[in-house]
Design goal:
Blueprint lengths: L13 E2 L12 H11 L9 E7 L4 H12 L8 E7 L8 E3 L4 E4 L2 E5 L1 H7 L9 H4 L9 H7 L4 E7 L4 H8 L7 E6 L4 E3 L1 H16 L12 H14 L2 E9 H4 L9 E11 L1 H8 L8 H20 L17 E8 L2 E8 L6 H14 L15 E8 L3 E2 L5 H7 L6 E6 L2 E5 L10 H11 L11 E5 L1 E5 L5
Helix pairs in contact: 1-2, 6-8, 11-12
Length: about 475
């Protein structure tokens, strides 16, 4: 079901359907019935669908394949990040919408403008109405979502020439249990049937194998690589649900020597995926573990700054458990970079490698670390517990329950999010001042914390012996 208050918006705030009556029927009743038929076959999977790769051709060709994926999505989804390729205009980076509503024959769908506005601050984003208005790749996904979900908002993203890893990093903090990510893409185009299936099988093998640099023949290659990068970071498991060509789905409407390939691939969160978060050991790390992680962080820092390959490392099993962590770089006790993962999305030692590299090269507050700075930098690693919601009744209750020097705090409000590690209490010991700065870090007014929700976590932090 979609929202239906578009009549209160100006026409300039609405993105009207561009391909209704062309790629799919413009009759609401017929459209709903058609999609229900496509979604009738529900494959058996072992896990929860968190992301999809779904085709975007006319429904007579790709509808049956798309339906296998959408049949499995969770009804509790309230936010859908749609990522597709720009077919009509060249884009450098990614393009977001400035619309408040998308229309289809089944009704109106609200855009999550608050999150869009947060994402627009990224240098990856370039706005392009000429790309958005005629584009079909995202639009054809919407009726499936309207039939399968109750109430949701969308974040429409069109991709051009961009780094999939960078886009994945941008989106990662905004993906939660109620978020579905959809990469819209067809596969090979206009090959004979036999050749097309061979090419498509190679593409699917790349996706299922998680080979981020592997072979992909698809118009939505970049969206596909973005969700592959996200799957790796979130430890989701890819599963092929269906794969066919236009000849196989609609032989009466095409030619066997000139087909287009389609696939529906789901990325699952399984019990095995989430086991480290729920039941993994959370034993306190030993001093040897601290030394190992600091050594790994140092090697990663030096390798990325000097542009050399990092040597492989052997680590004990406890450092292979999924843990959240931050890596902080300082020079003379002044911050030089700090980046991390709050959630336990990957093995701890790998998170340290990535975060040391990102803190050195990708912290937007600083220029990349230079070789001349390596000997001056001191590294600190913070290993986090799994964040848990902080149940509070009001602002006064929040102030009572926060524990300075103990709790790291995550603030969330309508798509905006920020966190302070427990160490920040040393600079901001006053609770109100702490929360004000946390609000401003999220791009909110200083009193935004009064309306926000919170999670807390604890951190075990340790650093190199540095003369600072």
């Amino acid at each position: 079901m979609a929202t239906t208050h578009a009549e209160t918006l100006a026409a300039t705030d609405i993105r009207p359907a561009a391909v209704a009556g062309k790629f799919y029927t413009s009759s609401p009743a017929a459209l709903r019935k058609e999609i229900t038929t496509y979604c009738a076959h529900k494959p058996s999977v072992d896990g929860t669908v968190r992301m999809l790769i779904s085709p975007h051709a006319g429904y007579v060709f790709s509808g049956p394949v798309a339906g296998t994926g959408y049949s499995l999505i969770n009804k509790s989804i309230t936010k859908v990040i749609l990522i597709g390729p720009s077919h009509y205009e060249h884009i450098n980076g990614i393009s977001l919408t400035d619309k408040s509503m998308y229309q289809t024959p089944l009704g109106d769908i609200a855009v999550d403008n608050e999150l869009v506005n947060v994402l627009r601050k990224s240098p990856l984003v370039h706005m392009s109405k000429n790309a958005e208005l005629p584009e079909h790749c995202l639009e054809v996904q919407l009726p499936f979502l309207q039939v399968q979900l109750e109430k949701f908002k969308i974040i429409p993203i069109l991709t051009g020439k961009t780094d999939p890893e960078a886009v994945a990093e941008l989106l990662l903090p905004y993906i939660d249990k109620n978020t579905l990510v959809v990469a819209s893409s067809d596969l090979s185009h206009y090959y004979p049937q036999t050749d097309a299936r061979e090419l498509d099988n190679k593409t699917i093998a790349t996706i299922i194998g998680g080979e981020n640099k592997g072979f992909i023949d698809a118009c939505g290659e970049t969206p596909i690589r973005i969700v592959m990068a996200l799957a790796k970071k979130l430890n989701f498991t890819p599963v092929k649900l269906d794969a066919r060509t236009s000849w196989e789905t609609a032989p009466d409407y095409g030619e066997k020597n000139r087909v287009v390939g389609y696939a529906s691939i789901a990325f699952l969160e399984t019990d095995q995926n989430i086991k480290p978060e729920v039941t993994g050991k959370k034993d306190k790390l030993t001093s040897d573990d601290h030394s190992t992680l600091l050594d790994i962080a140092r090697k990663s820092l030096v390798a990325c700054v000097t542009k050399k390959e990092m040597v492989s490392v052997d680590v004990p099993d406890i450092l292979k458990e999924n843990r959240g962590c931050f890596v902080t770089l300082t020079i003379n006790n002044a911050l030089r970079g700090c980046i991390g993962y709050i959630e336990p999305i990957m093995p701890l030692y790998k998170a340290v490698i990535e975060n040391a590299r990102n803190a050195a090269l990708s912290d937007p507050r600083f220029d990349p670390v230079m070789v001349s700075e390596l000997d001056k930098i001191c590294i600190e690693v913070s290993v986090l517990t799994v964040p848990v919601p902080l149940d509070v009744n009001d602002a006064d209750d929040l102030l009572k329950k926060l524990r300075p020097q103990i709790d790291g705090v995550i603030l969330s409000y309508h798509g905006a999010q920020s966190t302070f590690l427990p160490q920040v209490w040393e600079q901001l010991p006053d609770k109100i001042q702490f929360l004000q700065h946390l609000s401003m870090k999220a791009g909110l007014p200083s009193d935004g914390w009064k309306k926000a929700s919170f999670k807390i976590y604890q951190a075990e932090h340790f650093k190199e012996s540095c003369k600072q």
